[in-house]
Recover the amino acids of this structure.
DNA sequence: CACTTGACCTGTCCGC
DNA sequence: TGCGGACAGGTCAAGT
């Protein structure tokens, strides 16, 4: 669920809230949520100051003054929610944003010297926080393999078409979800982009024309930008750094709209299964070519 | 090698 | 009402 726009929205929020704060304490539930040894946390996290908050693909990077970085993947149900000390404590008038934290999904709590806290919540425990020397982050396997950022200027329609050709015999939806082809697209924006470009998700890449590729490029960029503008898509769990929901889902054309009319032609939207994922299409607008 | 499927988890929803 | 099972979907490992 947290795809590029959601992670970027969290980054924007944390970038305003965290830099300059000094970490005082880190508490985590199980090693799985924070696989680094306690010693590393004691040596390189506690006492360090947050320098900046960045994003690559769907991964958040919190760079510390210790030359180490917290590398965070929210996977499906992860949240990073910041609470200043003034919004803390049961019964406090400002303590009503999304309920009291920590809650039963809280995996890691980072407390800053000024009393504010950052909660890493994750209902399904797929997400994680890892600690790496900042200089080593680009060498993490995932970052070595991951594809280009779709919103960077260097990502042109030509680059997109060329990257798609890496998987000519796969269906286009599977390829859009492949992070080594292109970073940041997940189930929501794959469906929305394919609808925008009028391409059936089961269409094989080798059967996608340059014209269709260009249309898909534009549709993907458009939905990603719109979603960032609207604070991301809250389907179930997603919230931003302040614990607030995003509103993109109300702009969605097909995602989670099965049984409702296509906004373009009125045909009833169907939900099918492609690449092992629930997939939403307009059977009239999107036909296999 | 290219590509697809299953595992990892927990909560929710649907049918019986 | 309770219960089993399908489903949610990002990524990696295992399978075809």
């Amino acid at each position: 669920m947290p795809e590029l726009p959601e992670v970027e929205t969290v980054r924007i929020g944390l970038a305003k809230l965290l830099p300059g704060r000094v970490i005082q304490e880190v508490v985590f539930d199980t090693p799985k949520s924070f696989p680094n040894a306690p010693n590393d946390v004691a040596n390189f996290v506690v006492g360090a100051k947050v320098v900046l908050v960045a994003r690559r693909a769907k991964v958040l990077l919190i760079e510390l003054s210790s030359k180490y970085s917290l590398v965070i993947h929210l996977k499906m149900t992860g949240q990073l929610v910041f609470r200043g000390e003034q919004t803390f404590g049961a019964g406090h008038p400002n303590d009503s944003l999304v309920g009291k934290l920590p809650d039963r999904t809280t995996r890691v709590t980072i407390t800053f010297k000024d009393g504010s806290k950052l909660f890493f919540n994750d209902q399904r425990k797929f997400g994680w926080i890892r600690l790496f020397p900042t200089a080593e982050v680009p060498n993490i396997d995932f970052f070595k393999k991951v594809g280009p950022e779709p919103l960077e200027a260097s990502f042109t329609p030509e680059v997109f078409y060329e990257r798609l050709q890496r998987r000519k015999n796969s269906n286009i939806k599977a390829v859009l979800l492949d992070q080594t082809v292109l970073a940041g697209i997940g189930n929501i924006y794959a469906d929305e982009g394919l609808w925008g470009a009028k391409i059936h998700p089961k269409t094989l890449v080798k059967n996608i024309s340059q014209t269709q590729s260009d249309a898909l490029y534009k549709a993907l960029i458009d939905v990603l930008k719109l979603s960032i503008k609207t604070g991301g898509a809250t389907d179930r769990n997603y919230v931003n750094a302040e614990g607030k929901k995003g509103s993109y889902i109300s702009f969605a054309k097909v995602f989670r709209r099965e049984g409702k009319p296509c906004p373009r032609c009125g045909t009833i939207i169907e939900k099918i299964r492609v690449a092992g994922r629930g997939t939403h299409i307009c059977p009239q607008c999107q036909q296999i070519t």
In short: The longest strand of chain A covers residues 50-56. Chain A has two domains: 4-145, 157-281. Residues 1-3, 58, 73-77, 124, 126-127, 142, 177, 179, 186-188, 235-236, 276-278 of chain A lie near DNA strand C (CB under 10 Å from a C1').
